[in-house]
Amino acid sequence: MATTLQALEYMRLLPDEAMATLSRLELLARAKKQGSKSGRHVSPNKGFSVVFAEHRQYTPGDDIKNLDWRVYGKNDKYYIKEYIEETNLRATIVVDASGSMNYRGESSSPVSGRPVSKFEYAQYLSAALAYLMVKQQDAVGLVTFDEKVRTTIRAASKPSQVRIILEELHATKCGGDTQLAQTLHEVAERIPSRGLVIIMSDMFDNADAIIAALHHFAFKKHEIVLFHIMAEEELTFNFRQSQEFKDLEPRAIKIKVDPQSIRNAYLTRVREHVTKMEKVCGQLRADYVPITTKQPFTKALNEFLGRRSFRQR
Length: 313
Prior knowledge:
Layout: H1 4-11, H2 16-22, E1 41-47, E2 51-57, H3 69-75, E3 79-87, E4 90-96, E5 104-108, E6 115-117, H4 118-135, E7 139-145, E8 149-156, H5 160-171, H6 180-190, E9 196-201, H7 207-219, E10 223-230, H8 232-236, E11 243-246, E12 254-257, H9 259-283, E13 287-292, H10 297-311
Parallel strand pairs: 4-7, 4-9, 9-10, 10-13
Antiparallel strand pairs: 1-3, 2-3, 5-6, 7-8, 11-12
Helix pairs in contact: 1-5, 4-5, 6-7, 7-9
């Protein structure tokens, strides 16, 4: 049981401005999902809900209350009315906790008033999405990883699930090498039924290996949302003076370089990598959400959900 002080600490991941925004939003699945409860998302299973699907011929054992008597009156044959069953969404938030996520840019967060790391930004987004999904009675779980899966919380829709996820997010510290693609393959195999997979990462790994891992999720019929989180400096490389750069992962390699001499080559590689991530998401009909840590996370979340809702109309 968390102490009062611990509760205050992990609740910082859901500041007042986030709660005000989330009260007006909802997250809908774009594809058919399997779940355990009736809800607002279309399921691949046929049931007896409010959305008509088709007729099928009556067979012994069918409940006669579902007979379509109008069809019988016209054709003198018994037909059953089938409906599309709506179900709750099962989502898994997958958070990269490798060393590179510990990098923080120079821009201050509107929440904390100080620069935030990529991991802290992922914490805010994950907390907000967990709260949002449980609020709309959907099941949500959490996976954290670096070179391997560190924590797995199975998806659930009970109100206490938000507290459980927030406590785990607050307790998680960055560290370890990036083994993004390998770990995503493992996560794809672990998730028991098709649903929504929300990935929070800076995507620092071999692009082709990541692409293969994302295809693994698609093969398992999961819907993918990829939040590609980077610091502004990683996208612009606006360093001016010669300085020492340090690897944030366990090898802790240090190298002194002149930023001006490598800037063009660096930016070309970054643009190629980002383009590949965006392209594969388009091919898989996944949501690709590029974000920098200088952007208020509530604004980023609001814009993403707004675009997603608009596409579903």
